Amino acid sequence: MTVTEDRPADAGPPKEIGNSRRRKEDQRLITGRTKWTDNIQLTGMLHIAMVRSPFAHATITRIDTTEAKAAPNVVLVLTGEDVKDEQGGLPNVWPITPEQVTPNHPSIAVGRVAFAGEIVAVIVARTAAEARDAAELIDVDYEELPAALDLRDSVEDKVLAHPDLGTNKSAFWQFDSAGAGTGGNVEEAIAEAEKNGVVVSREFRQQRLIPAFMEPRSVVVDPTGEQMTVWSATQVPHILRFFVAAVLGINEAKVRVIAPDVGGGFGGKLQITPEEFITIMAARRVGKPVKYTETRSESLMAGHHGRDQWQTVTVAATKDGTVTGLKVDLIADLGAYVALFGGGIPVLGAFIFNGIYKFPAYQFNCQTVLTNKTWTDAYRGAGRPEATFGIERIMDELADVLGMDPLEVREQNWIKNDEFPFTTVTGMAYDSGDYEAATAKAKEMFGYDELRAEQKQRRESKDTVQLGIGISTFTEMCGLAPSRVLGSLDAGAGGWEHASVRMLPTGKVEVVTGSSAHGQGHETAWSQIVADRLGVAFEDVEVLHGDTQISPKGLDTYGSRSLVVGGEALVRAADKVIEKAKPIAAHLLEASVDDLEFKEGRFGVKGTDKGLQMAEVAMATFAAHNLPEGTEPSLDCDATFDPVGFSFPHGTHLCAVDIDTETGGLKMRKYVCVDDIGTIVNPLIVEGQVHGGLVQGIAQALWEEAVYDDAGTLVSASFVDYLVPTAADTISFQTGNTFSPSTTNTLGTKGVGEAGTIASTPAVVNAVVDALRPFGVNDVRMPCTPERVYKAIHAQDGAESGGGATEGAATPHFNEADTADRTDGSSL
Amino acid sequence: MTRISVTVDGASYSDDVEPRMLLVHYLRERLGKTGTVVGCDTSNCGACTVHLGGRSVKSCNVLAVQVDGQEVTTIEGLAHDGELHPMQAAFHECHALQCGYCTPGMIMQAIDVLNDNPKPSEREIRDGLEGNLCRCTGYHNIVRAVQTASGQEPIAATAEGNAS
């Protein structure tokens, strides 16, 4: 390959869908010719630094900006008081109940701060360094207030996160299968099982996580010119444009939002942020371009977090292991404010908490809670990892109580291949799936029976290194989302997606998509889809996205929706192009439209060798010299697709870990996953999505946690303390696929962006617990650190079951005695 | 301000810089070498890795004044005469990048790993890349890319066999 990639001269027309095309995106990314938001330099551009609250909850009694305003090259200083009539509040698009308690969320705090990291003042200066210097000169007086920090205390309103609201309880949301008419009464099922079957109930902790995308968030606003241009490292340029208009009262048509190259998101960049609004307000005041780029510690502290739930999961079953009911009670930490999707995140898990199993009765109760911590919202999986963890952990616990193999109890209860389509107890219509095939393939790749035999032998010999085998037979829902469903759940918008296909006279094709990629490879995969559909070369398709002026309509990228919703819009737009070109081709060929067939890019007259290539029709349409009467000289077409249903990827993930029971040390030995994500457009990209997803899910199981101290300070606010795994921590994976195409879209795709993350966390924790079963352990709290594993093994010695909570204080970096020695030089 | 002269990607530059200016900011803001990026503020992520005198350094951990009289190579200086460096080609071939933000630093570090050890084992590759974070790929394909660039068969070394 060369820097400017050439197309092989003899490249025929291979089928593109299913082809492991190397990515078009790579050229600029591997050579450093990138357009990250922070790269942008505009003439006269100014820079922002933020002053953030060090306190979780405090009244602001005074802000003295005098010295900062006098500092060299400071152009503007803003406080909440300066913008309080202009800034409005940051949006929550999904109030999950009409009664939801939603505190106003100002971009710059006015009078009071509700979490450590909240912005209290803003410096605009000629250089980023001068802005940072001046930020140090802002003098803020705070009166500290008691902070609502612990989730279980906060739900009881022991301390109020927002005293004026009178409660921390934001919303209570319930799904009950008896009430919905989709199943039986769960309390009756539990009562019956208590008499004649088994009831297993466990409390699980979903720790707080941080998305930790690699590119820190950045925003540049240029207010000069007729339209204000906003560049932002965002997943959601279209949604941002809407809210810039809605919140700040700027005419939507006067706002252009561009998401240039975006360095990862994982949900963390689907937020509408204070930093974006502040940069806009500052730029409008100074009339010059303004840039804000966050530091990593700001990102970890103030960008939204994910997960953070306590779950009580209760399963009822007969004595032979057939499940009869599932009850879920959870509390979810919203943080200090209700974010864009906010309380909708746990609700997204409600519809698949039952997993792949045939529960006749189900109830899901969710209480969202306000605390004085960083706000929470979507993080890869968004609601589905939490649900999948709950169901896949409890199925293992059920198997243990019944003395069954955990795979056996799953198979006994899952939806059989010949039962599809299957409407579950939540009312979801699972269109396709083959759990038997995925599981059989995974077992074979894993060597399941051999590893079970080894485990048995090691248990019998009381080996100090014990082997644990973890299973996760997951499903999830992708394709956010049918607009009607979102409407019925009180979400503020729909879930359609838009695409357009523009036929250029030279035969090249421009594809405009409303989805906004940040690493997913849309430019490559979309080219493959269009190349097949229109019979043009892969290299001749150019994919445009991420700029509201180029791609005027879209609902952006999150929830594994791009391919299943955006890809379908693309297919429909391409098909319209063919239909539009057909009468023109027929006219040029002097044939009847009915006699034409379109195949591999050519309109042929049936039974003859006469025909025209799509490119020839495009050129003739551009020239417009000889078109049928009344035909417009354009082949360009748009399509906006609103799905009618979700898609349900599924798979079987198997994990083997070795645990040194003398130290609690854990080593992952093997990870096998077989995912059924329907039709695969590009196997290479799919594998990459799975690998990355796996590591994020494994990281939740083993390493990552956002930890606050007793004062509400995030102590894991740098990459020193927040353990994003490295290459040295992880292993290579064995991945495979089975195929049961989705029936809800033309291509049969199901979505893959989140599957690895959703499935892997319970597989790993199940493996850890499985290894420790001989010690009477039935849970280890995440992240399963060596310390927790060790404590769980020795729980009978008096330690808390599950290994206890993470210490609120940061682990001391130095032994104090050592430090003293070093500083006085005596040990050197 | 301090005067420095430095060669970056084969071109010579002379500039007055603040003594506190980091090399990465000098590269990005003064020379426009925006291929090299900043990912953290604690020198953990390695996104800013460049070569200084032929060895990898995190350019957020070096002051611009420290490189006076030295030679710096960034991701933008790797390709020659329109041909990609073998490590760049391997990253493309093995799909070792997704969002691409860590990629410049990862490639620079991977080259340094092979300079030290031309035929590293999977373990040695993983240890050699420990100072560079990637959030997208799960490292699987990055390891394969380094194996490929080293002329070794890219195998995944879970004990039981091949991945993908």
Tell me the distance between the termini of chain B.
54 Å
**Strand order, largest beta sheet of chain A:** 3-5-1-12-9-10-11
Class from secondary-structure proportions of chain B: alpha+beta
Helix and strand content put the structural class of chain A at alpha+beta
Helices of chain B, by number, come to 5
For the largest interface, the chains and their residue counts are: A-B, 67 and 68 residues
* Anisotropy-based shape of chain A: globular
Spans where pLDDT lies below 50 across 5 or more residues of chain B: 157-164
Shape of chain B: globular
Instruction: Tell me the strand percentage band of chain B.
Output: 15-25%
> Which quaternary structure do these chains form?
heterodimer
Helix tally of chain A equals: 23
The portion of residues forming beta strands of chain A comes to 15-25%
The percentage helix of chain B is 25-40%
Write the layout of secondary structure elements.
The complex is a heterodimer of chains A (828) and B (164).
Chain A: H1 26-31, E1 46-52, E2 58-64, H2 66-70, E3 74-79, H3 80-83, E4 112-113, E5 119-125, H4 128-135, E6 139-144, H5 151-154, E7 169-176, H6 177-180, H7 186-196, E8 198-209, E9 218-222, E10 228-232, H8 237-248, E11 255-258, H9 274-286, E12 290-293, H10 296-302, E13 306-317, E14 323-335, H11 344-350, E15 362-370, H12 384-402, H13 406-413, E16 422-423, E17 429-430, H14 435-446, H15 448-460, E18 465-475, H16 483-488, E19 497-503, E20 509-513, H17 522-534, E21 541-544, H18 562-589, E22 596-599, E23 602-605, E24 611-613, H19 614-623, E25 637-641, E26 650-660, E27 666-676, H20 683-702, E28 734-737, H21 755-772, H22 786-793, H23 816-824
Parallel strand pairs in A: 1-12, 10-11, 14-15, 20-21, 27-28
Antiparallel strand pairs in A: 1-5, 2-4, 2-6, 3-5, 7-15, 8-13, 9-10, 9-12, 13-14, 16-17, 18-26, 19-20, 19-25, 22-23, 23-24, 26-27
Chain B: E1 2-8, E2 11-17, H1 23-30, E3 49-52, E4 55-58, E5 71-73, H2 86-93, H3 103-116, H4 122-128, H5 140-149
Parallel strand pairs in B: 1-5
Antiparallel strand pairs in B: 1-2, 3-4, 3-5
